[in-house]
């Protein structure tokens, strides 16, 4: 019998968190290479982590608040990115209010 969890890539929060932290470390290690692909790997890692972690969203908000050029760059490319990434950019904007919970949080789900 098929496991429904296998059909959803990045399906659970723990898996996304582990993958995000691993990609963040790997990206930091490979960034100094001649082709700095590590920057893109780290950006993807932050995207994965920000989906579920309030601390990561607050860290991205802090960076966007303190580096306005970074914030403008994200806003400038947002319209070219997939919907999920655009949503992540919106919720990490310094002026965006933080909701009490995210819909994918375990606490927001109704018991079965």
Question: How are the secondary structure elements laid out?
Answer:
Elements: H1 13-30, H2 38-52, H3 54-66, H4 68-77, H5 83-91
Helix pairs in contact: 1-2, 2-3, 3-4
Structure explained in plain terms:
By secondary structure, the chain is mostly helical. It has two domains: 12-52; 53-99. It is 58% helix and 0% strand. The protein contains five helices and no strands. The longest helix has 18 residues, at 13-30. The radius of gyration is 16 Å and the shape is globular. The mean pLDDT is 81. InterPro entries: Uncharacterised_PGPGW_TM (IPR019099). The chain crosses the membrane at residues 20-49. Residues 88-112 are annotated as: Disordered. It comes from Roseospirillum parvum. Keywords: Membrane, Transmembrane, Transmembrane helix.
